[in-house]
Every structure is written in structure tokens, then in C-alpha cells.
Amino acid sequence: MQGRIDRTLPTEGEMIVDPRTGRIRFSDEERVARRRAQAARNYQRDPAAFREYQRRFRERHRDRYRAHKIVGKRIERGQIIRPDQCERCHVHCEPEAHHRDYSKPLEIEFLCRACHKAADREVRAARRESAREASQAA
Ligand SMILES: [Zn+2]
User: Fold this and answer.
1) Which of 56, 76, 107, 138 has its CA 20 to 30 A from that of 1?
2) Is residue 123 part of a domain?
3) Separation CA 91–CA 109 (nearest Å)
4) Distance from the CA of 125 to the center of ligand 1, in angstroms?
């Protein structure tokens, strides 16, 4: 393990104040970089196991994987233009494509990280609610 990358406290350049909670945390760029670095280390440690893990992950999240791939391809080809701000809070950023339903891969909303998290929470809450209603109706 290389201790430097695994520091738990961000340096000044790596941190931001979370706009939603007001707490200090790693910037999104830094978190992505850390995740990548960890994946690279996992791969180096055991390439076969890493590929197997990736394969299983894709299998478990097949719809999600497929939806992201479709959107990624379209963005690459310029058929979908990623806006430079969040569609909800309009913060200037490189927004992520949010899916309400992975079986409709082109129904997306471009959201900043914070709004994307909130949107995913809404989807989960709505799903729980409809499951509850279904069980009450039965
Ligand atoms: Zn937003």
C-alpha cells in the first residue's frame, strides 16, 4: 500500500466545502482520481481477480452499465451534448447523466454531483413508496 494516496485528510488543493452539508470533503476530481488509483492498484495486485470483479459488477448492474455505455457513446459521437451546468441547480460543472429508469437509457437529466445524489435518493424513495402501496393493496 502506498500511504500517500490513502491519506484520509485532504490537503488544501484537494478539498472543497460541500455545498449541501457545509462540511469539508475531497473534491469530486480528487475522489475520482483516488478511485482510479485504487482500481489501478487492485489491478496490479491481481489482474485476473480484478477483471473477474469487473465482470461480476457489470453482470449485477447490467441495465445501469448498458445505459451508461449508450449515453457515453452518444456523447462521444456528439449526438448528445453534455451541458456545462446542472439542469436543476444550474451550478457550472461537468454534470453527470442521471437515469430515473435504466431501461430507458436515453431518458436522462444532466445533474451536478449533489443533485444527482439527491435525485437517486428520490428514485429510491419513490420505489420504496410504490412497493409499500403494492403490499398494502394486496
Ligand atoms: Zn445541481
Assistant:
1) 56
2) yes
3) 14
4) 19
Q: Is residue 75 part of a domain?
A: no
Q: Are residues 94 and 44 located together in one domain of the fold?
A: no
Tell me, in angstroms, the distance from the centre of ligand 1 to residue 49's CA.
36
Structural domain for 120, as ranges:
82-138
pLDDT in tens, the chain (138 residues): 444 455 566 677 777 887 777 888 888 788 889 999 999 999 999 999 999 999 998 888 899 989 999 999 999 999 999 999 999 999 999 999 999 999 999 999 999 999 999 999 999 999 899 888 888 876
SS3 label, residue 24: strand
Distance 121 CA to ligand 1 centre (A): 14
Query: Residues 86, 55: one domain?
Result: no
